Amino acid sequence: MAFKDPKAIAQAGVEKGVQKARLSWDKAMVAGFLAGAYIAFGGLLAVTVTAGLDPEVWGGLTTFFSGAVFSLGLILVVIAGSELLTGNMALVPLAAMRGRASFKDMAHNFSFVLLGNLLGALFVAYFLADQTGVVSVEPNLEKLGSIAHKKGVEETEWEIFLRGMGCNWLVCLAVWMAFAAEDIAGKILAIFFPIMAFVAMGFDHVVANMFFIPAAIFMDVPDISWWDAVHNWIFAFLGNLVGAVIFVAGAYYYLYAKPDEQQPEKADAGDQPPADGTAGATMTEMETAAR
Fold this sequence. Notes:
The protein is 74% helix and 0% strand. By secondary structure, the protein is mainly α.
């Protein structure tokens, strides 16, 4: 099975980050809506599959099953094609670290993708979870209420932040490893394990929580308010951002994507290395200089 090595993954990540940074606002919104809906589909599936499983009988397998089916969300995002904020938190900053995207580009992309993700998640929460009656029956409603109450009420700000950091470290690794695969089966396999892991461990994904908590509110689960939702989203967003920028974009930029680590794509047979022993400029850098 063909696959990219880490340096090739890093280069693919830079190029994808540049592509995302240049996306127009309307396409970012539409693609963001799709990604928010796809993640919500994963959340809805996780609730319906595991609601009837008694933890006293199944133990930790209930969270494993939740994570296993929740991975559908990112599989749809990556393979069908859409814009997910948490993945973009690694790829667009990676492009910026290479000097190929600006802070303005990041703010533009994050803003419209975030709004699209929120609208997509709310759409599924209201129309496909609440109005269809899929989750309004027991034991589905009890399961959803338990998830939403834990994330919206029980977790402290510090816990949400750290869970968000761990979550997006794994989510971005799933996206990162999917770049390595050259076929759909390989991409699905690369995505499955990190996503299963973050859900099984109870980490916080800001877009997933845009489904779980509002869906509970729409179905009148007691003791959960819209402020509980916003409060969770703020700290999950911050944790997700740190997990992506520092532990994925920053770490792999340092290891494999720094300009002095890139090799020329093509060189003449008679070319000699520079006298100081450093590698030559990359094709990308030569193109930039030419502009």
